[in-house]
TrEMBL record:
Highest taxon of source: Bacteria
Signal peptide interval: none
Keyword Iron-sulfur: no
Pfam family, one: TPR_2
Membrane-spanning ranges: none
Protein name as it appears in the record: Tetratricopeptide repeat protein
Organism: Candidatus Geothrix skivensis
Start and stop residues of the TPR repeats: 313-346
């Protein structure tokens, strides 16, 4: 599997499509999809609308449809940076889902599109973020280069200072230079303490191997929990920020607090469906509140799910885990099958099916 997930989702969180910028920046992907489709009904040749629709579809993990929409945008307006970015993100997403040698072609195509997007609009911040991550995460044979990745961070810092610092930090984490990475994370947080992406990436990095090696398991957990508590007030109205804080408590050994934070903020965020999905995850991972977690997932599966998450395959998988743990194995098997219908290569659903087959 190619490590393209952060390339896709970090870029979706800061897209620059002018007519849709505010909603995409805020993660209102359902609204973007609806608005772009309305514009396309009025004018089927609206390239920016096709580009925005593509990015919304990528947030729902519908990468094939996203690629087709991006192709329409590129064909209508070949030099449109947002269209090139959208196609690059869709190609990257397809590479994630393929998880085989066929994904190499998609990886190279995504790199080409991301480079073209930065050339078409040097001020397109998410293109620099995506390109920098791609340079760092991909092997040299596919064009990877830490030097080029750091150059992207410099370019991004000139137009979006906190995001440039964030990219620098992410690159240094991949290089296993924790102390240097930590300094750049703190610079980004000082500039944008309420940015859920900066907060989320910092908390995620604190739970990764370089931090564990530098701080030890106990030290890592203590720092992770302290930072989650410190940063929670700044992201209290953001579903993605709340989820990042919840994950920090879950991974730091406080699953009950992870659950409590989600419950307390359900009525305060614009995308409660994402918090309900996280409730299901906390219940499945920790074993706490299984009936309530199952009820939350059932609501997620009945209603529109906002983009930028594990999506419907993830919801079905977590539901299957909970059903298994509640002793409802046939229902669990059906849930796993639903996940695999949506994503035949979903690792968690396949492992769940194998576990159920064993008995």
């Amino acid at each position: 599997m190619l490590p393209f997930a952060p390339i896709v989702f970090l870029s979706l969180a800061q897209t620059q499509a002018p007519a849709f910028r505010a909603d995409l920046d805020a993660g209102r992907y359902l609204k973007v999809l609806s608005d772009s489709e309305q514009r396309l009904r009025q004018d089927p040749n609206d390239a920016p609308a096709w580009a925005a629709k593509s990015q919304a579809l990528s947030s729902f993990l519908r990468f094939g449809e996203a690629r087709a929409a991006a192709e329409r945008a590129v064909n209508l307006k070949p030099g449109l940076a947002d269209a090139l970015l959208a196609r690059g993100l869709a190609r990257a997403g397809e590479a994630i889902k393929q998880r085989d040698l066929g994904s190499l072609r998609g990886a190279m195509g995504a790199m080409d599109d991301l480079r073209a997007a930065t050339e078409a609009d040097p001020n397109l911040a998410p293109a620099w973020m995506s390109l920098g991550l791609a340079y760092e995460l991909l092997p040299g044979l596919l064009g990877g280069s830490t030097r080029k990745a750091l150059r992207c961070a410099d370019r991004l810092r000139a137009i979006a200072p906190a995001r440039g610092d964030l990219l620098q930090a992410l690159i240094l984490v991949e290089e296993d230079k924790w102390r240097e990475a930590e300094a750049w994370f703190l610079k980004a947080l000082a500039k944008a303490p309420q940015d859920p992406e900066v907060v989320g990436q910092w908390l995620d990095a604190l739970d990764r191997r370089p931090a564990k090696r530098a701080l030890g398991e106990a030290g890592k957990n203590a720092r992770l929990l302290a930072e989650a508590q410190r940063l929670l007030p700044g992201v209290g109205s953001s579903a993605r920020g709340i989820i990042a804080v919840s994950d920090a408590h879950l991974h730091g050994g406080q699953p009950e607090q992870a659950w409590k934070i989600l419950q307390e903020h359900l009525g305060q965020v614009e995308a409660p469906s994402l918090l309900r999905l996280q409730l299901g995850k906390v219940a499945a991972v920790s074993g706490l509140h299984r009936p309530e977690g199952l009820a939350a997932l059932e609501q997620v599966l009945r209603e529109p799910l906002e983009g930028g998450s594990a999506g419907l395959p993830g919801a079905w998988w977590r539901k299957g885990q909970l059903l298994r743990d509640l002793g409802r194995k046939e229902e669990a098997r059906k849930a796993a099958q639903e996940a695999l219908k949506l994503d035949p290569r979903h690792r968690g659903a396949r492992e769940l099916t194998e576990d159920l087959d064993r008995g």
